[in-house]
Write the structure tokens for this entry.
Amino acid sequence: MYYREYFFYLKERLPEKCYEVLKECYKTQKNDIENNFNLLQNSKEETKTIDILLPIKDTFYPMDYEILLREELIIKAESRENRYKLDRFGIYLLHYINLK
């Protein structure tokens, strides 16, 4: 239960712009995010997951990405220039706050 409480706390702390891009990412890639969550949740060792790239937003400023990077929700995508992907905690955050 600790993760769930932490992620709800973190969601409240994130600027609205940051959360908007995460919500859009979840809407467009929900199945991949949930599959990655299950892989990470059930693994005992490091697991290869599908890269979940954040959508490109013209209104999203570099500082917003810095906030998400600092909170360890995203990381730079090595294979693509100027793109970011969800990190393990980003996957957990989107899973826990989107549970119905």
